[in-house]
Design brief:
- The protein is of the alpha/beta class and 277 residues long.
- The chain has two domains: 60 residues; 207 residues, Rossmann fold (3-Layer(aba) Sandwich), CATH 3.40.50.150.
- The protein has eleven helices and seven strands.
- Strand 2, helix 8 and strand 3 form a beta-alpha-beta unit.
């Protein structure tokens, strides 16, 4: 029994080293890589099968959403705004620089078609927050110029890619908020977040793919006046819709938490839910 456990531990360590040595995944949060590697080693004794499983899980969590270097795009936005034309207003300059960069992340690319009405709806439901927590944020902090936020609001964002997190931290130089970005795996370490508004945009299905019930555990740990949660209506490829009932997915996530569904709306391929305590 001990030898089997040792073999699994050795395989998990080897998978972690291999994954973190690859160019594609070397900047991922280490706790995420170790979690996925441990799962793969537990499921498969065959090294090839374990590697295939681990890479599939990491693709679901991260790789499937990217169509370029997200970190490079964010850094480019910062540079463009800092050296931009003085005749542009701050909001106009930020929007002009941010919108093309959003194409590097699938969720942000889709949402760019309905950003203004999307965040107008959020404001109608939630008012103007002093603090925001953006969970599994992707490139959504680039949408800050479309959000109605209090002057000098605090904006906390987390992601699993350390390179992207470092780039997002640079947005603090140009955005009208006090922005903090951190690297974290929402499955391994559920943060106890307190804010006026939490954003969980296309997060539920992604982290529940990683670990059943992860979205519910995350919601249960939050202490936020409002939560905006969204679900995709179709797969990233657009070739199929989801067979599961979206309302049931959200109800499962809120069960056991302090939240309940107050409102819902639809924008393009995205379903939007407003939760309150």
């Amino acid at each position: 029994m001990a030898s089997m456990a040792e073999s699994q531990a050795e395989l998990a360590d080897d998978l972690t080293r291999r994954i973190r040595a690859s160019a594609k995944y070397r900047s991922l949060d280490e706790s995420l890589v170790r979690r996925v590697s441990a799962e793969a080693a537990l499921r498969f004794s065959d090294r090839k099968a374990a590697v295939k499983y681990a890479r599939r899980k990491l693709h679901q969590a991260f790789g499937a959403f990217l169509s370029g270097s997200a970190a490079r795009e964010v850094t480019g936005v910062v540079q463009a705004v800092r050296s931009g034309r003085p005749d542009l207003t701050t909001t106009a300059a930020l929007r002009a620089a941010a919108l093309p960069a959003m194409r590097a992340h699938a969720s942000s690319a889709e949402r760019s078609a309905w950003l203004a009405p999307f965040y107008d709806q959020v404001t109608q439901w939630c008012g103007i927050p002093d603090s925001v927590a953006d969970l599994a944020c992707g490139l959504n902090p680039l949408a800050i110029p479309w959000m109605a936020l209090a002057p000098e609001a605090s904006y906390w964002a987390c992601e699993i890619d350390a390179e992207l997190v470092a780039a997002l931290a640079g947005l603090d130089e140009i955005m009208p908020v006090r922005l903090t970005a951190v690297s974290c795996d929402l499955v391994t370490s559920v943060p106890a977040v307190r804010a006026d508004l939490a954003l969980m945009l296309k997060t539920v299905t992604t982290i529940d793919q990683q670990s059943a019930g992860a979205a519910g555990r995350l919601l249960a740990a939050l202490d936020c006046g409002h939560v905006i949660l969204s679900l995709p209506r179709r797969s990233l490829s657009g070739r199929r819709g989801y067979s599961a009932d979206p309302a049931a997915i959200v109800q499962d996530a809120v069960a056991g938490s302090r939240y309940q569904i107050r409102h819902e709306a639809a924008f393009g391929t995205e379903l939007l839910y407003h939760l309150t305590q």
